[in-house]
């Protein structure tokens, strides 16, 4: 049996799992660094707090996207059923 998954689904899932949290942490860190430095708090503390907040926001966004995706995605599709001989098995079995 051959099963196919659309390539775009794999790319989207990879980006959602790895890219969004990374971007959230980096953007949160930069924003926290800039905003809290203006408020008189150390830049390192601002970057750390902003990065954590950005990471949490990104994980929330990914979880919402996952819930939506589960409702709309039909999953992998069986594209072909292979016979035993075509799998490299012995003919007599």
Report the end-to-end length measured between terminal Cα atoms: 18 Å
**Biggest sheet layout:** 2 strands, antiparallel
- The level of helicity is 55-70%
Overall pLDDT, averaged?
83
User: Looking across the biggest beta sheet, what order are the strands in?
Assistant: 1-2
Q: In terms of structural class, how would the helical and strand content be classed? A: mainly alpha
Give me the count of strands: 2
| H/E series | EHHE
Count, helices: 2
- Based on CA inertia axes, which overall geometry fits? rod-shaped
Radius of gyration: 23 Å
Secondary structure layout plus pairing:
Layout: E1 2-4, H1 7-38, H2 43-72, E2 77-80
Helix pairs in contact: 1-2
In short:
The protein is mainly α and 93 residues long. It has helices spanning 7-38, 43-72; strands spanning 2-4, 77-80.
Task: Give an overview in words.
With 93 residues, the protein is mainly alpha-helical. The chain has helices at 7-38, 43-72, and strands at residues 2-4, 77-80. Helices cover 67% and strands 8% of the residues. The chain has a two-stranded antiparallel ribbon. Helix 1 (7-38) runs antiparallel to helix 2 (43-72).
Distinctive features:
single chain; 93 residues; mainly alpha; two-stranded antiparallel ribbon; 8% strand; rod-shaped
């Amino acid at each position: 049996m051959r099963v196919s998954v659309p390539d775009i689904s794999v790319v989207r899932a990879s980006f959602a799992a790895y890219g969004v949290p990374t971007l959230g942490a980096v953007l949160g860190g930069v924003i926290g660094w800039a905003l809290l430095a203006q408020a008189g708090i150390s830049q390192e503390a601002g970057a750390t707090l902003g990065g954590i907040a950005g990471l949490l926001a990104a994980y929330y966004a990914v979880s919402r996207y996952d819930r939506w995706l589960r409702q709309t995605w039909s999953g992998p599709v069986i594209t072909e059923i292979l016979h035993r001989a075509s799998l490299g098995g012995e003919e007599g079995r």
